[in-house]
Amino acid sequence: MAGLAGTIPMPAMRGAHAADAPLVASGPPLDYSFKELRSCAELETEEPRSGTKRAPPESPPKDAGAAGAPGAEPAAGEAPNEDAAIATSTMRSNAPHLSASTTAFATRAPAPAGKPLKRVMRMVTTSIKLNNNMLETVSGLPMALEFVMPNPVINLQWVDLSFNQLVTIEPDLLRFVNLKALYLHGNCIKALSAVDRLKKLSKLVSLTMNGNPIESSRVYRTYVIGAVPQLRSLDHSTITQDEVSASAAWYKGHQERARKRAEARENAGVDD
Question: For residue 226, what is the DSSP state?
Fold first, then answer.
């Protein structure tokens, strides 16, 4: 997972707005492995083995945000209070352990006046472990993840679904537009054609499919690399440029042969 989920896509900002924008970094993964989950809906009530589950929304207390209140964030245009400034270095050192909803003041380059410029740092969950469960489908996964992490359709970059009982690659999996790493090894996927759907995930660079019935096909690796050309690693093995070129040529020929077979079947049906 290292190097795959280090930053969160953020819109470009300039000038004063850039100085006020929060620093966003990936938090630790949510671990729901070995939970005997049978459906994605169970995520709403299940607690993760590690990582911090998104807290349910609560109404803020009446005195929330009062000046000088412990833990209160500064209002727009207001400098952080002295207690927050003192806590800056401690919170930065503990940043890797902050939850998805935790913020901290991060010291940046000195401001022109000689005072350190502080910006809010936000840790966002970008990865989840769902391996070694009993899932037969990922239908409803985007909605289920709304209960455990913020904006999963955008933020999710790494997901481990290995060693479940999945039989195909479903449309709900394709909704995670920023997905970079997908582990599907040790499932029950039988049709190589199911892999074709993954080409829609334009940022996907690491995929595992070994341990599925499709691995027994003699063209397994060639097919997957040809069908998902953006991949850089398959089954934890780096894809070479020679493999990319050879697989692309083979896959193009495969599609042409499949088209001709389909036309032949259609013509045969008309003749009957």
Answer: H
Question: What pTM was estimated for this model as a whole?
Answer: 0.72
Distance (Å) of CA 57 to CA 120, 150, 172: 21, 11, 25
pLDDT at 21: 62
* 4-43 confidence digits (pLDDT tens): 545 555 555 555 455 556 677 888 999 999 999 999 999 9
What DSSP designation does 216 have? Answer: G
Q: What is the DSSP string of 20-75?
A: HSPEEEE-PPEE-TTS---SGGGGGTPPPSBS-PPPPP-PPPTTTT-TT-TTPPPP
Tell me how far apart the alpha carbons of residues 267 and 261 are, in angstroms, rounded to a whole number: 10
Name the nearest CA neighbour of 138 among 179, 199, 193, 192: 179
DSSP code at position 242: H
